[in-house]
Structure formats: C-alpha cells, structure tokens
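Proteins fold reproducibly. Consider a sample protein:
=====
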Amino acid sequence: MSNASLTRSIPASFGNLVNLFLDLSHNQSCGEILDSVQRLGHLLLLDLSHNSFCGKIPNSVKSLQRLLKLDLSHNQLSGEIPAGVAMLPATKTTWLVRFTEVLEL
C-alpha cells in the first residue's frame, strides 16, 4: 500500500493480521502510532516511512519479536526510542540510524 495516498491513521483492525509485510510508506498517514501495533506479533516488516506520524514510538513496538525491518523515518516522531527496541532482530540492520534525525538517543 505504498504510495496509495492514504490519509488516516493505521486501522486498529490491522492488529488482527499475521505473517505480514506491512508497507504503508510514502502516504499521507498521520496521527500517533497506536499501541495496538503490539498485536502484530507475526509482523516481519513494518515500513511507515515518509508519512506524517507524530508523537512517541509506542513501547509496544518492542514486542514485535519477529520483525526483520522497521522503518519509521521521515515522520514527525519525537521522544526517545523505547528501551528494548534495540534487542529486536531488526536492529541488525541500519534502521536505527534513520531515527537519529528526529529522536533523542
């Protein structure tokens, strides 16, 4: 659903999906990233880059233990990266560097 001109926040019902590659990058999505992201326990890829998400990264992101790629770059996020996120498999890639533009480490 990349470049689909989506303008709303991520629906809570996405939390019911499993074995998912969720790419909502390059849209016009806004609002906060909801704590319901923790229900995406089988998520392998989460790309929310190039949107207008704001607020803090929810602590629930650290529960995505199967996540191989996480890209939240080019949003309007603030605050610190939640403790425990650095232990995710996704941190074996370079996605963490993308956060330094907008977040305190």
Remarks:
- The radius of gyration is 12 Å.
- The beta strands are 21-23, 30-32, 45-47, 52-55, 69-71, 76-77.
- Residues 93-97, 100-105 have pLDDT under 50 and may be disordered.
